[in-house]
Amino acid sequence: xxxxxxxxxxxxxxxxxxxxxxxxxxxxxxxxxxxxxxxxxxxxxxxxxxxxxxxxxxxxxxxxx
Length: 65
Fold this sequence. Notes:
single chain, mainly beta, 3-stranded antiparallel β-sheet
């Protein structure tokens, strides 16, 4: 995913290569979503964007419905 440059010279364009997984509990009351930045040969870094990575190695979200 690539983001567009919104601000002139204040924020650099970013691109993300993320592996994401989600799971809904059997009772459908909890959703777990986790993602991690990865490298992939089909999406090498390019000079027009800054490659973004997660500050934490694994991001995880739990949503209780």
